[in-house]
Amino acid sequence: MRHRKHNHLLGVKTAHRISLLANLSCSLIENGRIKTTLAKARALRPTIEKVITLAKKAHVASDAAQKVHYRRLAIARLRNKKAVKKLFDELVEQFANRNGGYTRIYKLAMPRLGDAADMAIIEFVEDAPKKKAKKKKSSSKKVSKEPKKTPESDQPVAQEAQPDAEGSEDAAEEPASEPESKEASEPESQSDASDEDAETGAEEPAGDAAEEPASKPESKEDSEPESQSDASDEDSETGAKEPASEPESKEDSASKDEEQASKD
Fold first, then answer.
1. Interhelix angle 14-31/81-89, nearest 10 degrees
2. Looking at the predicted structure, is the pLDDT value of residue 247 above 80?
3. Do 10 and 40 meet the contact criterion of CB atoms below 8 Å apart?
4. Maximum CA pair distance of the chain?
5. Which of 59, 108, 185, 195 shows a CA-CA span of 20 to 30 A to 171?
6. 12: closest CA among 1, 24, 2?
7. What is the CATH number of domain 14-124?
8. Residue 211: pLDDT over 50
């Protein structure tokens, strides 16, 4: 009789149901925890626990042929050799001391959007051994790039600070030197101004001489002082020349007296 056989049909045909449960079992072995509907989680529990029992028998068996036999039975149910290998070689050890009850189901409060199906999480009772997380290479590089402070590295900083201090002293002396430069520039400007006045004074007589033919004849009174000044200049020149000629006349007279004395 077919009594109590109408459980966990999931509304699909037999072939579809067997494939669905096999895929869910492989996902649970690979990840250790999966999220699915509550009906599928309850249907998956007896299937995955029967496969774990096969792995425990193979782990305890001493005959190699018997181990291969149990492994082949698991492959026939799960249809995935990688999942079976992981279960028989790695996960079986955490179930060795447990007699049944290898999975746990958690009901979720929020239903699935769309059809409002009840959701659940199914996982192994004992967590699978986690792989060691790889260390980030970037953190090690940052630590290695940081320069170590040493007394030698502090010396160049002190030497660089000295030129900065000298530069500040020079900047402080510059305002004091500015008034001196101003005072030195004032006499130069005055001398330049006097030179320009002399040049203009020298150019003015030449310009006046060129303009004399066009200008009216000056009055006699203006011309007489000029003639007197010219005469005074000539007298001063002759007076300067006469003292030089007097010694010459004395020498001539002396030479004449000597000639007469020699004749006598």
1. 50
2. no
3. yes
4. 202
5. 185
6. 24
7. 3.90.1030.10
8. no
C-alpha to C-alpha distance for 210 and 229, rounded to whole angstroms: 22
Q: Under a CB-based contact definition with an 8 Å cutoff, are residues 125 and 98 in contact?
A: yes
Q: Which residue has the tokens 């040493």?
A: 150
Q: Which tokens in the block code for residue 173?
A: 């002396």
Hey, how many other C-beta atoms are within 10 angstroms of the C-beta on 94?
15
Domains of the chain, by residue range, sit at 14-124, 161-214
| Integer Cα distance of 117 and 40 in angstroms | 11
**In sequence order, which ranges of 147-219 are alpha helices (DSSP H)?**
151-211
Q: 118 with 38: CB under 8 angstroms?
A: yes
Average pLDDT rounded to a whole number, residues 53-79: 96
Say how far apart CA 49 and CA 46 lie, in whole Å: 5
More confident residue, 102 or 135: 102
Tokens of 225: 């002082």
| Tens-place pLDDT, residues 159-193 | 554 555 555 555 555 554 454 554 545 555 555 65
Tokens 């509907």 correspond to 37
**DSSP letter assigned to residue 94:** G
SS3 106: strand
